[in-house]
Write a structure and sequence with these properties.
The complex is a heterodimer of chains A (351) and B (381). Chain A has eleven helices and ten strands. By secondary structure, chain A is of the alpha+beta class. Chain A is 52% helix and 14% strand. In chain A, a hairpin with a 2-residue loop joins β2 and β3. With 381 residues, chain B is of the alpha+beta class. Chain B has a four-stranded mixed beta sheet with strand order 1-4-5-8, covered by helices on one side. In chain B, a hairpin with a 5-residue loop joins β6 and β7. In chain B, α2 packs parallel to α5, α6 runs antiparallel to α7 and α11 packs antiparallel against α12. Chain B is globular. Chain B starts with 12 loop residues before the first helix and ends with a helix. Classes of the chains: A alpha+beta (351), B alpha+beta (381). The structure holds flavin-adenine dinucleotide (FAD). Flavin-adenine dinucleotide binds next to β1 and α14 of chain B. The site of flavin-adenine dinucleotide (FAD) has 17 residues of chain B, from β1 and α14.
Chain lengths: 351, 381
C-alpha cells in the first residue's frame, strides 16, 4: 500500500508541482485547480475512519506521502487536511470534502452553541473552505467551522511565504461539534502538526541533500569538481547523517502516532528541527552565491526548513517538555522508557 | 539515496521476549556494581561474568545450534546486548568474539574452524581480539605490512600490530595481513585466526591516558601458523574486513557506552530541572532514541545479508558526537567537578568518561574516515 501511495503522489507532484508553480503560489496564492487535483487523488481522506471504525490507511502508511509533500514544497494544506479528517472521523464526525486546515493556538471558546474568538497560524486559513480547532481544555471539543463565517481574516505568512492566517469568529454556529476522541488529549493538534512537519522536513532534507550532491559534482573550481574537496565532502556527510536521523525519527513518529505515542512525535520534532538547521546551513554553504538567489530552487526548500522547524513547537519547546518528564521520572526509569518509546506497547509511552 | 533506507524497524516480539529475563539476570548479578564500574561499559573485562552469560546461552546466540549457538535472529542478540550495555555490564571479555569474530568464522571459515572455535565462543570461554591497526597503518588500513609467507604446511607470520584491545587477555586474534604482492591497493591481503599462545608472539600492554591497560602492541616473530589459520580465501582479506567493519560500526555500543553518565547526570539534576537542564536532557533523550532507531534499521539490513557500510558509518559518527557531547553538557548543566577517586558517583563517572571521550571518534574508524565513507555513498568521491 505504501509504495502505491508514494508512487501516486510522487507522480502528481512531478507532473503538476514544478518549481515555477511553487514560486507562483508565493505571489498568487491559492490555486483551486491544484487543490482539486490532489483532492481527487483521495489523500485528504485517506485516514478517515468509516462507519465500521476501519481506516483505509495508517500514519505509518502515509509517512512517505508527507515526506514527498515536503520534498516538492507542495503549496497546499494537504497534510493538514489529512490530519483534520483523521481527527474529525475519530471524534465521530463526518470527513469533509473540500479544502480543510486546522489551527492550534488562539482563544476560541464555545458560548452556548456558538463559537467566539480567534484561531491563529492556520495554514492557508484564509483560503480553505473549512477549519477545525479545539475548544476547552478539560473536556476538549472539536469544532468544525466554515471559513466563510469568519468575521475577520488576518493574513500572515511564514518565512517561506506560506499562509499562516488568523480567523476571528464572532459568535458563529459551528458546522459540527463533538467531544474529542477519548484516546486523545488537548495536545493532539499540536502533536499532529509536529508529526506532519517532521515528515515534511525529512522530505525536504532529502531534496536539498540530493540537490547539493548533484551541484558539487557539476561545479568546477581550481580545475576540478568541488565535490573532490574533502571539506565539501565532510560537510555533506554531516548533512546526510542529519537527514538519515530525521527520516528515521519521522518514520518512528508516524508509525507510533497510530498507537497514541507522544514521545516519538516529540523526538521527531526535536530531531527534525536540529536537522533542518544543519541541512539549510550546509547546503547553502556548498552552493556558494548561486544558492543565495531566488531563481535557484534551493531557497524553496531551505526557507521552508527554517519555518517548519519552529511550527508546532520548536526544538527548545519539545526538548524542555521531554526533559522535564525524563528528570521527574528519575534515572531508574530512563532506559525502560527509551526502549518503550519505540516499541509498540503504549504502556509508559509518555516518558 | 541511502537515507531512504532508514525506515521504522520494529523489534520482533520473539526477540522482545528475552528482555525481561536479561533484566532479571542483571538485577541479580550486578546488584552492588558501582556506577564508576558501569562507566567502563564494554571495556569492563570480567571473564567470570562472560562465562555466566555463556551458560545462559547469551553469547553467539545468532550462530547455528550445531555450533553451540541458538539460531536466534539478529534482534534477539540486539536486545540482550543493549540491555547489557545500558546496565554498564562488564562485557569486554567476550565482546569481539560475540560481535564479529564468531560471525566472520561462520561466514568465511572452514568446517574445521567452525567446529573448533564457535562452541567455545558460545560458552564464553574463547576470547578474540581484532588485529587491524599497525604502527604505520591506522586510517590507511590497506597499507599494512605484517606479512604471512606460505610454507609446506602453513604460513610464517612476521610483523607487528598495535592498539589491539584485549590482546593481553584474549586467546585468538583475527589479523589482517599481507599474503601476496598485488597490483591493486586492496588486493593481496588475507585474514588469519592467530592463536596468541604460539611461540614467537609477544604482547606488550600500552597504558592509556588514564594509566589503564586495555590495548597492546603485538609482535610476530617467525610465528608458524598451520593451514587451519587462514580464514576465508587467500587474497579476500579486504573484502572480509569491510563486511566485519559494518558489524563493528552500527551496534548499540556506539551510543550506549556512556549511559552511566546520562544516569548520574539525571540523578545530579534531580526531579525538578531548571529550564536549561530540562531542555538539554530532553534533547539528549531524543538523540538517543533516534540513534537507537537508526541502529535497529542497520541491524535489519545486516540480518538481510546486505552490506550497509554507509548507513553504519552514519550511526557510528552520530553516536560518537552524541557521546562526546555528553561530558560537555554535564559541565554545562551541573557544577560538580569530575573526580578520579573519592568523589560522588557522578563526579567519578564524569572523570572517567571525559577521558574516554576522545577515543569514541578514533576506534572503529575515525570521524574523518567515516565521513569519507558517507561522502562516497553520496557519490562525491
Ligand atoms: C581505545 C582504542 C582502542 C583501539 N582498539 C583497536 C583494536 O582492538 N584493534 C585495532 O586494530 N585497532 C584498534 N584501535 C586503533 C584505531 O583503529 C585507530 O586508532 C584508527 O584507525 C586511527 O588510526 P591512527 O590512530 O593511526 O590515526 P591516523 O590514521 O594517523 O589519524 C590521525 C588523524 O588524521 C586523520 N586522517 C588520517 N587520514 C586522513 C585522510 N585521508 N583524510 C582526512 N583525515 C585523515 C584521522 O582522521 C585522525 O584525525 C584502537 C584505538 C583506540 C583509541
Amino acid at each position: 500500500m505504501r509504495e502505491l501511495f508514494e508512487s501516486t503522489v510522487r507522480r502528481i507532484c512531478e507532473d503538476h508541482v514544478p518549481i515555477e508553480r511553487v514560486s507562483a503560489a508565493e505571489e498568487k496564492g491559492w490555486s483551486p485547480a491544484l487543490w482539486e487535483l490532489f483532492e481527487s487523488s483521495g489523500f485528504s481522506q485517506a485516514l478517515a475512519v468509516d462507519e465500521s471504525g476501519e481506516s483505509g490507511a495508517s500514519w505509518g502508511d502515509l509517512c512517505g506521502v508527507l515526506m514527498i509533500c515536503g520534498q516538492y514544497s507542495l503549496p497546499l494544506p494537504l497534510p493538514e487536511a489529512m490530519f483534520a479528517n483523521y481527527l474529525l472521523t475519530r471524534s465521530g464526525l463526518e470527513a469533509m470534502s473540500g479544502s480543510l486546515s486546522f489551527g492550534v493556538d488562539g482563544d476560541l471558546c464555545l458560548e452556548g452553541s456558538t463559537v467566539k474568538g480567534s484561531l491563529r497560524d492556520i495554514p492557508w486559513g484564509g483560503d480553505v473552505d473549512h477549519v477545525i480547532g479545539l475548544v476547552g481544555t478539560s473536556n476538549p471539543m472539536v469544532v468544525l467551522m466554515s471559513r466563510a463565517d469568519a468575521a475577520q481574516v488576518n493574513r500572515t505568512t511564514n518565512i517561506a511565504g506560506e499562509p499562516r492566517d488568523e480567523l476571528y469568529f464572532d459568535g458563529v454556529t459551528p458546522l459540527a461539534v463533538a467531544p474529542l476522541a477519548a484516546s486523545m488529549n488537548k495536545d493532539v493538534l499540536k502533536l499532529g502538526g509536529a508529526m506532519l512537519r517532521s515528515a515534511q522536513i525529512a522530505g525536504a532534507m532529502q531534496g536539498v541533500l540530493a540537490l547539493a550532491a548533484e551541484y558539487v559534482n557539476d561545479r568546477v573550481q581550481f580545475g576540478r569538481p568541488i565535490a573532490r574537496f574533502q571539506a565539501v565532502q565532510h560537510q555533506l556527510a554531516i548533512c546526510a547523517e542529519q537527514t538519515a536521523a530525521t527520516v528515521v525519527s519521522a518514520e518512528l513518529a508516524c508509525a507510533q502516532f497510530d498507537n497514541g505515542s507522544e514521545v516519538s512525535t516529540m523526538v521527531a520534532k526535536i530531531s527534525s528541527a536540529e536537522a533542518a538547521a544543519a541541512g539549510a546551513a550546509i547546503t547553502h554553504a556548498v552552493h556558494g552565491a548561486i544558492g543565495f538567489t531566488q531563481e535557484y530552487p534551493l531557497q524553496l526548500s531551505t526557507r521552508r526548513l527554517w519555518s517548519w522547524r519552529s511550527e508546532y513547537g520548536s526544538l527548545s519547546y519539545w526538548s524542555q517538555r521531554l526533559g522535564s518528564k525524563v528528570c521527574a521520572a528519575g534515572s531508574d526509569k530512563l532506559w525502560a522508557r527509551i526502549v518503550n518509546a519505540s516499541s509498540d506497547s503504549t504502556q509508559e509511552s509518555s516518558i | 539515496m541511502f537515507t531512504e533506507q532508514f525506515k521504522y524497524t520494529r523489534i520482533p516480539a520473539e526477540a522482545e521476549a528475552v528482555r525481561s529475563e536479561v533484566r532479571e539476570f542483571l538485577r541479580d548479578n550486578l546488584r552492588d556494581f558501582p556506577a564508576s564500574k558501569r562507566a567502563d561499559s564494554w571495556m569492563g573485562f570480567d571473564a567470570e561474568f562472560s562465562r555466566k552469560l555463556g551458560q545462559r546461552g547469551w553469547i553467539g546466540l545468532s550462530l547455528p545450534t550445531e555450533y553451540g549457538g541458538a539460531d536466534a535472529g539478529a534482534f534477539t542478540r540486539y536486545v540482550i546486548v543493549e540491555e547489557l550495555l545500558a546496565a554498564g555490564a562488564p562485557v569486554s571479555a567476550h565482546w569481539f568474539s560475540d560481535r564479529q569474530s564468531g560471525q566472520q568464522i561462520l561466514r568465511f571459515g572452514t568446517e574445521y574452524q567452525k567446529e573448533h572455535h564457535l562452541p567455545a565462543i558460545c560458552r564464553g570461554e574463547s576470547f578474540f581480539c581484532i588485529g587491524m591497526s599497525e604502527p604505520n597503518s591506522g586510517s590507511d588500513l590497506a597499507s599494512i605490512k605484517t606479512k604471512a609467507t606460505p610454507t609446506d604446511n602453513g604460513w610464517i607470520l612476521n610483523g607487528q600490530k598495535v592498539w589491539t584491545t584485549n590482546a593481553h587477555r584474549s586467546h585468538y586474534m583475527i589479523a589482517l595481513v599481507r599474503t601476496s604482492d598485488s597490483e591493486s591497493r586492496h588486493g593481496g591481503m588475507s585474514q588469519f585466526i592467530v592463536d596468541l599462545s604460539l611461540p614467537g608472539i609477544t604482547v606488550l600492554p600500552i597504558k592509556d591516558l588514564t594509566g589503564s591497560e586495555h590495548f597492546n602492541e603485538v609482535f610476530f616473530d617467525d610465528v608458524h601458523l598451520d593451514s587451519h589459520a587462514l580464514l576465508g580465501a587467500e587474497g579476500d582479506g579486504w573484502k572480509q574486513v569491510t563486511s566485519e567493519l559494518s558489524m563493528e560500526r552500527s551496534g548499540p555500543e556506539r551510543f550506549l557506552s556512556s549511559m552511566a553518565l546520562l544516569n548520574t547526570l539525571i540523578d545530579a539534576i534531580g526531579t525538578e530541572p531548571n529550564a536549561l537542564q530540562a531542555k538539554e536532557i530532553g534533547h539528549l533523550a531524543a538523540r538517543l532514541i533516534t540513534l537507537r532507531q537508526m541502529s535497529l534499521t542497520v541491524t535489519e539490513q545486516l540480518a538481510a545479508g546486505e552490506q550497509p557500510a554507509v548507513a553504519a558509518a552514519c550511526v557510528k559518527d552520530l553516536g560518537a558526537v552524541f557521546e562526546q557531547d555528553l561530558p560537555e553538557l554535564a559541565q554545562l548543566l551541573c557544577d560538580i567537578p569530575p573526580a578520579s577517586s573519592g568523589g560522588c558517583d557522578h563526579a567519578m563517572v564524569l572523570a572517567h568518561l571525559t577521558q574516554q571521550a576522545p577515543s569514541f571518534s578514533l576506534r572503529g574508524g575515525t570521524r574523518e574516515v567515516l565521513r569519507g565513507i558517507i561522502a562516497k555513498g553520496l557519490g562525491l568521491r
